[in-house]
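Input.
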Amino acid sequence: KDARLQERVARLEAENTALADAARQARELVGVEIVESAVRDARRNAARSGVQNARFLCADAGKAAAQLEEEGLRPTVIVLDPPRKGCDAATLAAAVRMAPKRMVMVSCNPATMARDLRQLESAGYRAAALRGVDMFPRTAHVEAVALLTRETADF
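Output.
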C-alpha cells in the first residue's frame, strides 16, 4: 500500500480550504480553525468533495492541539498555518509532544516564522527546506513555507 495513505495529518491554525487533496492522501485528517464560518466551509467542501476521513474542529489552535494530544492523536505530519503573530507557545509545545515525523509551516510573516522555527529546532526538528511562494503578484507580500523533519526519535 502507498505509504502516503498511512499518514495522519493534523492542520493547526489553518483556513481548511484546500484540504481535500491532503485528505485523499492520508488515513485521517484533522483541521483546526478558530473562525466558525471557515469550519462550516471546510465541512461543506469536504462533503462536496466526497472526503470522509476528515474532521474539523472550531477552536483555538493551542487548545485544539492539547485536546488532540489528550485523545492520543499521533499525526505523521502537522501543518501549521498561523496568523501574522505566529504560533503561540501552547500550540508549538503540543505539536512537539505529538511528535510528528514532519511539520510544514506556512507563514506570511518571516520574523515570527523565524522565531517559531528556532523554538521547533530547539525541540529536535530541523528545517529541511524553506521556500518563498509569491501568491500575490505585483506586491511585496510573499508567503514562506518550511518543511521540518524530526531529528531525534525520543520525545
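Strands lie at 8-12, 28-33, 54-58, 77-80, 102-107, 125-133, 143-150.
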